[in-house]
Amino acid sequence: MDLKDQVALVTGAAQGIGLATAKQLLKNGAKGVAICDIDSTKGEAAIEGFNKEFGKGKTIFIKTDVTKQDNLEEAFKKTKDTFNTIDIVINNAGIIDDAHWERELDINVRGVVRGTQLAMDYMGKDKGGKGGTVVNIASVAGLGLRSASPVYDGSKYFVVGYSQAMAFAPLSARHGVRVLTMCPGLTDTPIADGVLAGYEELDIKREAILSVFTMQKPDHVGEAIIHIIREGETGSVWVSDRSTAPYKVEFPELVKST
Q1: Does 199 participate in catalysis according to the annotation?
Q2: Cα(first)–Cα(last) distance of the chain, in Å?
Q3: What's the pLDDT at 124?
Q4: Quick check: helix, strand or coil at residue 132?
Q5: Alpha-carbon gap, residue 230 to 248, rounded angstroms
Q6: Number of H helices and number of E strands within the chain?
Q7: Is the pTM for the entire model greater than 0.90?
Q8: What's residue 257's pLDDT?
Q9: 111-123 and 69-83 are packed helices; what angle lies between their axes, rounded to 10 degrees?
Q10: What strand order describes the sheet that includes 7-11?
Q11: Structure confidence at residue 252 (pLDDT)
């Protein structure tokens, strides 16, 4: 898929992986990127930086709370009104906070479903759209790599399974939207701080974890997301870990179809 002249909406895009992905989209020729985030200060700062680097008019900031349906709907509407189309949706907003698990699930699970359903409304061929691409951001925690935060881990399992289910062939033939999943490893973001803090609460020192896992930069994950947008087939699940090349996950056939 050629990213030239594509329009993307990215949630949780004021910092971390979302911000890095927005930058990579622009570097690879995107016509417009909507920076959707609840943090207005960081969001506006991101737009200022992008205006200097890529020129004005290529990015907009939309204050967005993915736990509120009408709020997210307005972000999609404003993106389309500004750029006339939406081609790519990246559901990246997420937190780690098992102490407040209801909110954690509302962002990590319901926020992804809301974003994916709205992407289908705007891009789905069965809704009059031309198709497009959705990338849902999960985690290696959603592939069996345990952390000290079981609700967070479970939420990322959901993202993996839900994204694959949305690519079910008869359903996919109807909406015509590719659905991809990216599972980052330990990445230098606020979520990584939360992961490490969880281990420390179990008396596992941060240094011990970091001696096993190589912390990668958000830019590396952003580059990996561009790769899967270009190369990934619908339903595929990818890992970006330890600053190495992204790779596709192969799942065993646990339930025989015949």
Answers
A1: no
A2: 34
A3: 98
A4: strand
A5: 13
A6: 10, 8
A7: yes
A8: 62
A9: 40
A10: 59-63, 32-37, 7-11, 88-91, 132-137, 177-184, 237-240, 247-248
A11: 86
What the block records as the tokens of 194 is 């939360």
- The residue among 174, 167, 175, 171 whose CA lies nearest residue 119 is 175
pLDDT tier, 61 (very low <50, low <70, confident <90, very high otherwise): very high
Overall average pLDDT of the 68-75 stretch = 97
In this predicted model, what pLDDT tens digit does every residue of 186-225 receive, in sequence order? 999 999 888 888 878 878 888 887 777 788 999 999 999 9
* Tens-place pLDDT, residues 220-240: 999 999 999 999 999 999 999
Catalytic, out of 152, 157, 162, 247: 152
- Quick one: 77 exposed, middle or buried, by C-beta within 10 A (0-12, 13-18, 19+)? middle
Closest CA to 120 of 25, 234, 203: 234
**Can you read off the two tokens belonging to residue 228?**
């899967």
DSSP code for 180: E
